[in-house]
Amino acid sequence: METDAAPILDVRSVVEAISTDDDNAPLYQVESLCMRCHENGTTRFLLTMIPHFRKILLSAFECPHCNERNNEVQFAGEIQPRGSRYRLEFPSGDQKMLDRQVVKSETATIKIPQLDFEIPPEAQRGSLSTVEGILLRASEELQALQEERKKVDPQTAEAIDQFIVKLKACATGSSSFTFILEDPAGNSFVENPFAPSLDPSLSIEFYERTHEQDTSLGYAFESSEASVEPHGSVGAVAGRRAIAQGSSPEFAEALFRYTAPEEVMTFPSTCGACAVSCETRMFLTKIPYFQEVIVMASTCDACGYRNSELKAGGAIPAKGKKVSVAVKNIRDLSRDVIKSDTASVLIPEIDLELTSGTLGGVVTTVEGLITKISEALERVHGFTFGDSLEEGRKNKWLDFRARLIKLLSLEEPWTLIMDDALANSFIAPSCDDIKDDHQLTIEVYERSWEQNEELGLNDMDTSAADAVYNPVDNAP
Hints:
Layout: H1 11-18, E1 28-33, E2 40-49, E3 55-62, E4 69-75, E5 83-90, E6 101-104, E7 109-112, E8 117-119, E9 127-130, H2 131-144, H3 146-152, H4 154-171, E10 177-183, E11 189-190, E12 202-207, H5 211-217, H6 236-246, H7 249-256, E13 265-270, E14 277-286, E15 292-299, E16 306-312, E17 320-327, H8 330-333, E18 336-339, E19 343-347, E20 352-354, E21 362-365, H9 366-380, H10 391-406, E22 414-420, E23 426-427, E24 440-445, H11 449-455, H12 463-469
Antiparallel strand pairs: 1-2, 2-3, 3-4, 5-10, 5-12, 6-9, 6-11, 7-8, 7-10, 13-14, 14-15, 15-16, 17-22, 17-24, 18-21, 18-23, 19-20, 19-22
Helix pairs in contact: 2-4, 3-4, 6-7
Subcellular location: Nucleus
Family: Belongs to the ZPR1 family.
Organism: Helianthus annuus
């Protein structure tokens, strides 16, 4: 991409230019040194927005002396709160699947288990490509030094030649393989051509980063001094203030509609966005017809990052629970909803199904949940409105989004279903006695072996704790 009007600026001017929120910012150029021939080349910068994904900084280098070219993607905007793992199954003979676009950040790792092959973050830095392009680039980089290898280590060179043949077979669709893109920073992406519907070949997992991953990404730091701070305020007023600070007034209103906490505890923590020390507030509260829940809220004075989280209290329920409500009027849209991170969401009328883990744990209303689902789908399916998108797929997404938003107009009744294997999700009744709410249905069921396995319950051994807390008196 070139423009005669693009000014030649120094690096400081480029940084100032791309720091604005203007999506129509021009393409800027800087002179930079070519790493191959050590002559001056040109690097072009462009800050752009991938629709429903996030802002990225594209840089492309070109050297007129040796024709060296490369491009790089860097990410602008906020740090993602969780890491991401994309797993894509490629059958043999399907060349079209290899055209899926891929955003690979500088912290992402690509793996192909069948070949025992891994592209580490430093091998291919931030890039915007396709699955085919990534694999072909990897094979070209392996091929680049083969002549020298054959002179020094012919046996290794021969093994690499055999491996390149297998890699190219994957890149051309001749062999089936699994493509795994894992990014602890959460800034990578694989296109779903079936959006907004689920892709049967693609699975997405979001996970909490470990402390080691946070440290390697520069999001956390090792502290040599342990700070001890006293617990915070006591009472319902302090609880309301704590939650309002950590999230939104709506969040606080939804919780305090039922019960107020007796004690709010405050303990030191680290901001997940800027790694500065901050406070986390926590309290235990009881929600009628549900259970005890632990509410945690934190806010960072340094960067303004706010986060609230709700966890179930008490023991793991012996059975799962499916909660469904028939949404018929405005009052139903105002029902409070607690969705845990293990709950899946279904709306049969529009063929919508969100697997467990999507959206995480949220406290909201029925209307708020639909709004969050719409925003999350638009954010995840980043290439939905890309320039290369087929018109039919674009219209499919626009139609689905219209149907999703249309639910809030209540032109026709619809059903919201939350299936939670850990029974930690809840939809509030519209009357004082839950038995009188005939639109609300609660089904308790036995978890399957597969569900227990996914939750890690099959391997959980509590015999040692049972012996301590429930001693058996064997005395005569």
